[in-house]
Amino acid sequence: MPQPIAHLQQFDASPSRGVALPDGRQAFLVRVHGRVSAFVNRCPHQQVPLNLPDGDFLEAGGELIQCGMHGALFLPESGECVFGPCQGRFLEPLAISIDAEGNIHLASE
């Protein structure tokens, strides 16, 4: 099995985290309401990374993904932009799997 990209325990300190993928792309994972979702770290508006200045990916309430560049808000379940200049567009999702030990892997293609 390929190397994990993260572990569930890492979400104990923060509900979101950036990760480097094996192919060199930057991505991020968020855990909202117990569900982990993964996306390529690129806003569909200006193709910039979404990280907020503190490195987080969620707005202050912890419910929505927020673009640090212009404040666009995205649903963590689907990556759909629900507020901002790219409303109706989507983040690029990444399929993941979580094994019995809590390791998070990119799902096999």
TrEMBL record:
Pfam families: Rieske. It comes from the Bacteria. Residues 2-87 form the Rieske domain. PROSITE patterns: RIESKE. CDD domains: Rieske. Keywords: 2Fe-2S, Iron, Iron-sulfur, Metal-binding. InterPro entries: Rieske_2Fe-2S, Rieske_2Fe-2S_sf. This is Rieske 2Fe-2S domain-containing protein. It comes from Billgrantia desiderata.
